[in-house]
Design a protein that fits this description.
13% strand, Recoverin, domain 1, alpha+beta, 3 domains, Transferase(Phosphotransferase), domain 1
């Protein structure tokens, strides 16, 4: 897995003795009885934060003795991938615990059901608008993955969670992989009915996800899969012929735009097959695109941008604490903030560029200089990249005292107080900021120095709350 620094960035607590990982896990989470899911390598349980009973998590548990070395590498690869992703439609990773015998991955607990279970309940019948709403969110999530050079490689209904409001969350990145223009993958993986022909034949890139997306789109619109072969070989033969029957009775009530998009993505010619970015831009999604282009939310959106612009006036320590809180807790979702983020994010990849941010302020007549725009990005993105991700945007756009609520301050206090002596010192803060994996050592030194905390000072919870909120 690499050096200890890489473990800190991946938020993995490594324990030397068998059983210690579970002990560390149980210090933070109460695990419910009963399995809520099973993956290829382990079981999934529902957990509750001991500090905050409202914070529900999912805990994947693995027994290493039941795994091959390649399986362990696959799990570690999934953690690396999840750490790079930050999107409202992708499962959020919190931390992991590991020892010689066991490994536990803690992620957000997603309410709702898998898309496969939902489809069974409605006899595989979704309206075209409902299908578009689900697929637009999925396409946005995939666009974020591909912008980070990550392919999912197992897009199917069982790996998509849907809640009662039709909010989509993409899960299970166990088969995901990093790609580049020079790197062509050759290891076949995925679920046969959703696998692209080139994945089966063994030479593919990120557009394998677009093919799977197309198969899913076909299923949501018709209730059937386009290819019905019983074996991977039969499916490959059908897929290579790619004779889509879009004029049959199944498609008579489905729009021309939907049929056009299907043809563009269920294509055996990988070069001609749409990228996920082009999928998002297709006219078929006009029916469900974010309605924040209307003026109904303009006042709330203006307030979001004003709060974002004001974030730079906070001191370094407060800003750093807000950023850590956002990474270790489940933040409340403010519709105005989500809508404004989506509106600014012109490429729908959950990454706001400097140009997109400037355009947003200009549209609201809040003209900011290059220096001010750079300051906002610099105060949020500690990696030096010239963009803002979803969590960074939400952190800076929320009311400061909502982020730094007594409950969140207590969570942060306990996060820093690793030795559990009831106080937080300068050293505790330094180690806690380092453990978050967000900051470099040089940045941490500057943050701690800016806080004015002396080495001798030890803060109890009430004093710590005052320090953070100052």
């Amino acid at each position: 897995m690499g050096s200890s620094n890489s473990h800190k960035k991946l938020r993995i607590t490594n324990c030397k003795e068998i059983g210690q990982a579970r002990e560390k896990l149980l210090e933070k989470y109460r695990i419910s009885h009963g399995v809520i899911g099973e993956g290829a390598f382990g079981k999934v349980y529902k957990g509750t934060s001991i500090e905050d009973s409202q914070n529900k998590v999912a805990i994947k548990a693995f027994k290493k003795k039941q795994l091959f070395d390649d399986d362990v590498k696959s799990i570690e690869s999934e953690i690396k991938v999840l750490c790079q992703l930050d999107h409202p439609n992708i499962i959020k990773y919190y931390e992991s615990f590991a020892d010689e015998g066991n490994m536990y991955i803690v992620t957000d607990y997603i309410k709702g059901q898998t898309l496969s279970k939902m489809l069974e309940k409605v006899s595989f019948a979704l309206s075209e608008t409902e299908a578009a709403r689900v697929l637009y969110q999925l396409a946005s999530a995939l666009n974020h993955c591909h912008s980070k050079h990550i392919m999912h490689r197992d897009i199917k209904p069982a790996n998509i969670m849907v809640d009662t409001k039709m909010h989509v969350t993409l899960i299970d990145f166990g088969l995901s992989n990093v790609f580049s223009k020079k790197k062509i993958l050759r290891s076949a993986c995925g679920t046969p009915s959703f696998m692209s022909p080139e994945t089966i034949t063994g030479s593919y890139n990120e557009k394998c996800d677009v093919w799977s997306f197309g198969i899913l789109m076909y299923l949501l619109l018709t209730g059937r899969l386009p290819f019905s072969g019983e074996t991977p070989r039969d499916l490959l033969s059908e897929a290579l012929s790619c004779q889509l029957q879009l004029e049959s009775s199944l498609w008579e009530d489905i729009s021309k735009d939907a049929k056009n998009l299907i043809k563009k993505i269920i294509s055996t010619d990988v070069k001609e097959r749409y990228s996920i970015q082009k999928v998002l831009e297709h006219p078929w999604f006009d029916q469900v695109r974010d309605d924040s282009t209307e003026d109904s939310h303009s006042e709330a959106e203006l307030r979001v941008l004003e709060t974002l612009a004001g974030f730079t006036t906070e001191n370094k320590f407060t800003k750093a604490c807000m950023r850590v809180i956002a990474s270790i807790t489940k933040m409340p979702q403010d519709p105005a903030i989500s809508q404004e983020f989506s509106k600014i994010d012109e490429k729908q990849n959950a990454i706001i560029s400097k140009e997109e941010l400037r355009n947003a302020f200009d549209k609201k007549a809040l003209s900011l200089s290059d220096k001010e725009i750079n300051a906002i990005i610099g105060d949020l993105n500690y990696s030096g990249e010239q963009h803002i991700n979803y969590t960074e945007f939400c952190t800076a756009s929320m009311d400061k005292y909502e982020v730094l609520s007594p409950k969140n301050c207590k969570t942060l206090f306990n996060y820093f107080d690793t030795d559990k002596d009831g106080v937080v010192t300068q050293k505790d803060i330094f180690l806690g900021l380092e453990k978050s994996g967000i900051f470099t050592k040089a940045q941490i030194k500057a943050i701690v120095k800016d806080s004015g905390i002396s080495k001798a000072k030890a803060f109890e919870l009430e004093e710590f709350e005052e320090l953070v909120s100052f």
